[in-house]
Amino acid sequence: MPAKPVLAVVIPVYNEAQRLRDLLADWQPVFRATGVPYRLIFIDDGSKDASLAMLRDLATNDDTLDVHTQPNAGHGPAILKGYALASEAEWIFQIDSDHQLGTAAFKELWARRAGYDLLMGQRRGPNASAGRQWVTAVSRTVIRTLYGKGVSDVNVPYRLMRTEVLRPALTRIPANSFAPNVLLTSWFIRQKRRILLVPVEQRPAGARKSRLNAYFLKGAVRSFIQTILFRWR
Questions:
Q1: pLDDT number for residue 15
Q2: pTM of this prediction?
Q3: Per-residue pLDDT tens over the stretch 215-233
Q4: What would the pLDDT profile of 201-211 be if each residue is shown by its tens digit?
């Protein structure tokens, strides 16, 4: 990574080979338009498709791409690894490689960053099954009860964070967190940090409804427990 980039973008990847080229085609002009040095940090979480090979190939002709891999450990550990690698940047932006959310909201987040520590896109409309929507509602209720109100989409993968404020929070996040972004949202609320919420649209071409499965349900239970315990860390 270049010395102290202004913006580092953390993107966890698992079996998204079909979407990576479109993601880069849509997002690279947005990041270039900031006019600041930036780096895209891809964390391949043990993909079984061609994702890793594709990223490495793309990186040979694009020096803004920084590609890392790890044995499959889950979305949460992949994000945390990315945040650690991005910690020298002034700002960290996190998105997911499924490319479900549009790019337009980032312009407002970036333009207004000076007055805030955490700037988040808030998803509009249902993008999950009824089961997942129920899990999201429970997470929101737990956070409002234990940490405070103000954020409805607590786990959104569309967040711009001031790194100097983020660093102390990361030292408190368990390495095996199923949903570290939930804990980070909780921390920013509890610390009464400046938070901006901006609506973000779902891409029609990228929309796919996420469903509740055994893996997600077990992870959600673990996330609830971790969120409760995190209140006293």
A1: 97
A2: 0.89
A3: 666 766 777 687 787 787 6
A4: 988 865 555 55
